[in-house]
Write a structure and sequence with these properties.
The chain is α+β, with helices and mostly antiparallel strands and 207 residues long. The chain has a single domain, classed as Alpha-ketoglutarate-dependent dioxygenase AlkB-like (Jelly Rolls). The protein contains two helices and 14 strands. The strands form three sheets. It has an eight-stranded antiparallel sheet, covered by helices on one side. It has a four-stranded antiparallel sheet with strand order 8-13-10-11, with no helix packed on it. Strand 3 and strand 4 form a beta hairpin. It is globular and about 40 Å long. The structure holds N-(carboxycarbonyl)-S-(3-nitrobenzyl)-L-cysteine and fe (iii) ion (FE).
Length: 207
């Protein structure tokens, strides 16, 4: 379903097996070389979400190869199978070939019952390419806004385990956030006993 031009929600897109495979991969990335942690913001705040990056490391508000703000190590390589999954996601959401879509970074976010993500724009990438969002575990209430302000108009959408969301075109720079996680709504057979995992695949435009 198209929430706005270029913003397409595909409920139940990932199979249970694909979700299990992603949970295993995320668990591995969370251990290192750069461990999953609560990102510290330059203003002194700490994000409630925990994040681990693959391909490029995001430190607010830029991408680097080395995690200077954590342990100085190089993050895990971006695997070819994840780029393939991203191309399939864009192709199926937009009903067009996406052979030219080459994501080079993934941000893996883990939300416990209390975690939230305030309204923000993702504008640290130097590419207009779409962002692919994959959700696993507990359902959340996601707020998709507009490109001008953090406020109205916005649309609240529930993102459940297995859902795909692709943000591209005019929606690429829309404000968005996660209002809350709905505890106990996930399927533990994904391998995630509690909480919500979100992967976003991005094109940094860096080299
Ligand atoms: C999440 N993550 O559920 C969300 C899903 C983040 C983040 O917001 O920055 O890690 S990704 C939502 C997204 C990405 C790029 C553009 C737009 C939404 N958008 O235009 O609305 O953890
Ligand atoms: Fe975002």
């Amino acid at each position: 379903r198209e929430i706005a031009p270029g913003a397409v929600h595909v409920p139940g897109w990932l199979s249970l097996d694909e979700q299990r495979r992603l949970v295993v991969a995320c668990r591995e990335w969370a251990r290192g070389p750069v461990p999953m942690r609560h990102t510290r913001l330059p203003g002194g705040g700490v994000m409630s979400v925990q994040t681990v990056c693959v391909g490029w490391h995001w430190q607010p508000y830029r991408y680097t190869r080395l995690a200077h703000d954590v342990n100085g190590r190089k993050v895990a390589d971006f695997p070819g199978w994840l780029a393939d999954l991203g191309r399939r996601a864009v192709a199926e959401a937009y009903h067009r070939p996406a052979d030219d879509y080459a994501p080079d970074t993934a941000l893996v976010n883990f939300y416990d019952d209390q975690a939230r993500m305030g309204m923000h724009q993702d504008k640290d990438e130097r590419s207009p390419a779409p962002v692919v969002s994959l959700s696993i575990g507990d359902t959340c209430v996601f707020r998709f806004g507009n490109t001008e302000t953090r406020g109205k108009p916005y649309t609240d959408v529930e993102l459940a385990s297995g859902d795909l969301f692709v943000f591209g075109g005019p929606s690429r720079l829309a404000y968005h956030g996660v209002l809350k996680v709905l505890p106990g709504t996930g399927d533990p057979t994904t391998g995630l006993a509690a909480g919500r995992l979100n992967l976003t695949l991005r094109v940094t435009g860096l080299r």
